[in-house]
Every structure is written in structure tokens, then in C-alpha cells.
Amino acid sequence: MKNNDFKAFRTKIFLRSVIMLIISVLTVYFVYMYMFKDRFANYMVDFFQNFFHMDYAEAYSLFGQIFRNNRTMLILIFLAIVFLLVFYTYLKWFTKYFEEINNGVDSLISENAGEISLSPELFPMERKLNTAKHTIEKQKNDILTAEQRKNDLIMYLAHDLKTPLASVIGYLNLLHDEDQISDELREKYLSISLNKAERLEDLINEFFEISKYNLTKITLQYSRINLKRMLEMIVYEFQPMLKEKNLTCRIDAPDDIMIRCDADKIQRVFDNLLRNAVIYSYEGTDIDILAAAQNENILIKFANRGDTIPKEKLERIFEQFYRLDSSRSTESGGAGLGLAIAKQIIELHGGTITAKSDNEETEFDVMIPVS
Predict the structure, then answer these.
(1) How high is the pLDDT of residue 305?
(2) pLDDT recorded at residue 244
(3) pLDDT computed for residue 301 by the predictor
(4) β-pair partners for 363
(5) Is the Cα torsion angle 60, 64, 66, 71 positive or negative in sign?
(6) Are 366 and 239 in contact (CB under 8 A)?
(7) In this structure, are residues 323 and 274 in contact, taking their beta carbons and an 8 Å threshold?
(8) What gap in Å lies between CA 307 and CA 285, rounded to an integer?
(9) Which of 20, 52, 82, 309 could form a disulfide with 357, with the two C-beta atoms 3.0–4.6 Å apart?
């Protein structure tokens, strides 16, 4: 907390203290002057005469014995009374600030969503309490979000693993229950079961992969690679999928672009982006991969023709377990982990990945530092 944060507070305390001190001194002075003046003496003598039925001489003598002979004691008693009254008033005013702060702390830990309000001179404290309140509220929301994500994980895990597992069990039961089955049908059932089991293994590996990226510190193994050659190799591996939908993948990249990166992890990013482009492209369309140097960065674009992604979905596309079509089977759509992992890999390299979709064209832009 800076020294000048409570300058107004200190100034007000100082002025209030000086004012109360002056009032106390003036009060004692005027009472002292009044107590030993003739007007006060005459008042007290008249009081003694009327109340005790004394003559003037007796009443005046009594006044002298009580007030004049005990002047010092009376002054001290009066000073003590004035001091206690002033001190009590001062404490009552001063502790008002502690009551405000206490109420602010109560509001801080309560469910009340209102802003904490203190006296103007306590504005620095008010600001800090409201900052703490907003931080606590954000932490509560983060905890709720984390709890929801955990529930989503359980839901996705159950849903995504159930489908291939059920198929494996179903076809194995058919093989077990059929006493007489042709070799062709047995081969078909075994092929489907193997395919589903491999899909199940892929899903489990994906869940382990996202856990690894979340829970451990990834160490990148850097090497220099030719970007165009890597892209050509990935496209070659996708030829069967491209032919299945009659897609054409075009690469527009200079031959001499070299980047320093973790080749395996960057390949995983490009593989995922191309896989998504294939899955969500219209049949018979083109997929374009473009790469270009921009100052100290390399820009790689993956563009395909397909259904336009709504803005509200585009904003969540890099979230874990988020899929554009929640009803899409995991046969093609995956578990919704690929783009989340891709984003983490690119950020580990100090880069960025963004997506945009308009007029039935979707584009993913990856920006990676040259070194």
C-alpha cells in the first residue's frame, strides 16, 4: 500500500484531533473562568440560602469551603470529566471506520453481489476490498467451471468410449453365439471388432494425451525442418481420406522456408488441422495450405470449403472436449481434443492459432516464430 494512499484519511484524523483539542481547552478555560467569577459565586450563594435556609454570610462561607478551598481538586475532576467525554467522542468517531471496514469484510465473504462502499477518505481500502471481492467471485466461478469441465469429461468419456466398446462386445458375442458361421462373415465380424478396438485405443490415447499436456511441463525437442517438405509428407499420408471424398489438397509454400520447432509436435498440429479440413469439407472441393514468411514469423493457413461455423461456436472451437456437432459420431469427429492440444503446442512454441469462418469457407491460421 503506497504511503499517500491514506493521505486524506490521515489529514482528517489530524484535523479532527486538533479541533477536539481546541474545544477541550476552550471548554476548560471558560468553565474555570466562570466558576470563580462573581456571577457564579452569587448563583451558588443564592442556591445555598434558598435550599439550606442559610443567611448570606453562612452561604458565602460554605461556597468558599467547597469551591475556593478545593479549587485544584475541582479543576482536576472537571478536567478528567472533559477528557473522558472528549476521548469517548473521539473513539466513537474513530471506531466508525473500523465498523465500516468490518462490514466491508462481511460483504466480502457473503453472497451479496453489491459493491463495497466506505467513507471517501477510505477509498484506497474500498478499492482493495472490491478488488478482493471480484477476485473471490472469479475464483468461485472458476471452481464451478472446473467442476463443470470435470463433469463434461466424465460425460464425454462415457459417451465416446461406450460406442466402440459396445460394438466390440456385440460382434464378439455374435462370434461366440454362432455355432456355424461362414469364413466370410467371421472375417467381417473380426474386421469390424478390430476396427472398433483400434478406435477405442485412439480415444484412450487422446484422453491420456490431453492429461499429459495439462498436468506436466512439456519439454520441446527443437530441430530445424523444411516446412514445405513436412506439409507434403502429411498430405501424402492423407491421400486415402482425400480420395474418399474426392478432395484436392493444394500446397502453396516456398521451398526454402526453414523453421526451428519440435517436429513431432508441430506435425501433430498440422495433421489435426488437415484431418478437420477433410472431415468438414464438401465433397469434390479443394483444401488449400499456404505458408509465407512475415517478418520474424511464419504464417501457415489451412482453408477448406464447408458449412460456415457460427460465431458462438467458433469462439469455443479450441476448448477441450468441444465439438462443432455434439451429435456427430466419434467415428469421424473425435473426442474434441485435437484443436485443444494443437493450441497448447503452438503456444508452447511462442506462436498463435486462430480460426475464422465465413461464406462457407473455414480457415485456420497458425503463426510460428522462425526461431
Answers:
(1) 94
(2) 87
(3) 95
(4) 303, 356
(5) positive
(6) no
(7) no
(8) 12
(9) 309
pLDDT of residue 212: 61
Q: Please name which of 194, 193, 174 lies closest in space to residue 182, comparing C-alpha atoms.
A: 174
Integer Cα distance of 15 and 350 in angstroms: 56
How many CB atoms sit inside 10 A of residue 232's CB? Answer: 15
Identity at 59, one-letter amino acid code: A
Helices marked H in the chain — which ranges? 7-35, 38-52, 56-63, 71-109, 123-177, 183-215, 227-237, 239-244, 263-280, 311-314, 330-333, 338-348
Helix (H, G, I), strand (E, B) or coil at 301: strand
> What's the pLDDT tens digit per position in 283-315?
999 999 999 998 889 999 999 999 998 888 887
Judge whether 300 and 225 are in contact, CB under 8 Å. Answer: no
Specify the pLDDT at position 368.
Answer: 92
> Cell 456385440 appears where?
170
Is residue 93 within 8 Å of 85, Cβ to Cβ?
A: no
Average pLDDT across the chain, whole number = 79
Q: Distance between CA atoms of 218 and 44, rounded to whole angstroms?
A: 94
**pLDDT tens profile 201-210:** 777 776 776 6
Q: State residue 228's pLDDT score.
A: 93
Taking the C-alpha atoms of residue 140 and residue 88, their distance in angstroms, rounded to an integer, is 42
Q: How far apart are CA 224 and CA 92, in angstroms?
A: 73
One-character DSSP codes across 30-53: HHHHHHTSHHHHHHHHHHHHHHH-
- Grid coordinates belonging to 5: 494512499
- Tell me the angle at which helices 183-215 and 123-177 cross, rounded to the nearest 10 degrees: 160
Report pLDDT for 98.
Answer: 78
Phi, psi of 336 (to 5 degrees): 80, 30
- Which residues of the chain fall below pLDDT 50? 1, 326-333, 335
> So what's the pLDDT on residue 112?
65
